[in-house]
Amino acid sequence: MKKHELRLIVTAAEHLGPQHTLLRLTDPDYALPEACPGQFVQIKASVDGGLPLLRRPISINYIDKSRNELWLLVHDIGRGTHFLCTLSPGDTADVVMPLGHGYSLPERGAETPQRVLLVGGGVGTAPLLYLGHELAERGAQPTFLLGGRSAADIMEKDEFAPLGRVFLTTEDGSAGERGFVTQHSLLGRETFDSIATCGPKPMMMAVARYARQADTPCEVSLENMMACGLGACLCCVEPDAEGHNVCVCKEGPVFNINRLSWQI
After folding, report:
1. How far is CA 254 from CA 99, 197, 249, 263, in A?
2. What DSSP string runs through 238-249?
3. Residuewise pLDDT in 10s, the chain (264 residues)
4. How far apart (Å, rounded) are the C-alpha atoms in residues 122 and 244?
5. Are 145 and 175 in contact (CB under 8 A)?
6. pLDDT single digits (tens) 169-213
7. Cys-Cys with 8: which of 25, 83, 201, 245 at CB 3.0–4.6 Å?
8. CA distance 68 to 240
9. Closest by CA position to 176, among listed 158, 154, 195, 192
């Protein structure tokens, strides 16, 4: 898929909490390039010539084709992401997209709709919104299982709700069931045709263990540290099941769990 460097205009910057900002960006002259759920962008996180020099990788949260908008959910955890969270409507952002490989999607018009479980933790829920839209559009039946430390860590619930059933877990019990996503009662009473997940690595490994025990295909979106986003610097490699390394930014970030060396 061809990569594009774009100068996008911020149309909205919605602060979803003290550490999360939803940026909506558009190209006023041209349609945004096609992108798949699970792909990401590399966005310049400084004023030209300033620090940090490296772009920041951000998952594609959603592409609103009717408004020609790219949505990015940014977690303010460092100098670069803090800069992004200070952007305002009318500001310009330098974005390279789409990058990497995304989640598998079912064929359109299947006789039996696929039941897909989408499991997200914290800001890892971001790519699942676009994935849920694409699944629903193809006739699949997405179910969302979203988790966080508290209710404040679970974002965009109103965006997920029209796409399928939404179940919540929080460690403090302030929303949904108390505990971790893999402890939710849903997993003990229903089965699914496939699972897609994104979030902290320990959470994804727990989801992968559940998937393997349930003999259910599972894909994970890795969040390894990235620099170039193009497969040149090799700082984001992950051991695979054959004893080699895979480049997460180029060959992923989405992988079938059977391709990884995780002890699950």
Report:
1. 11, 9, 9, 18
2. EEBTTSSEEEHH
3. 789 999 999 999 999 988 999 999 999 999 999 999 999 999 999 887 788 889 999 999 999 999 999 999 999 999 999 999 999 999 999 999 999 999 999 988 777 899 999 999 989 999 999 999 999 999 999 999 999 999 999 999 999 999 999 999 999 999 999 999 999 999 999 999 999 999 999 999 999 999 999 999 999 999 999 989 989 999 999 999 999 999 999 999 999 999 999 866
4. 30
5. no
6. 999 999 999 999 999 999 999 999 999 999 999 999 999 999 999
7. 25
8. 37
9. 154
Rounded (10°) CA dihedral 84, 247, 127, 30: 70
The DSSP code sequence of 139-167 is T-EEEEEEEESSGGG---HHHHGGGSEEE
- The terminus-to-terminus CA distance of the chain in angstroms comes to 32
Rg (CA), the chain: 18
Q: Report the distance separating Cα 31 and Cα 36, nearest Å.
A: 15
DSSP 87: -
- Pairing status of strand 245-247 against strand 237-239: antiparallel
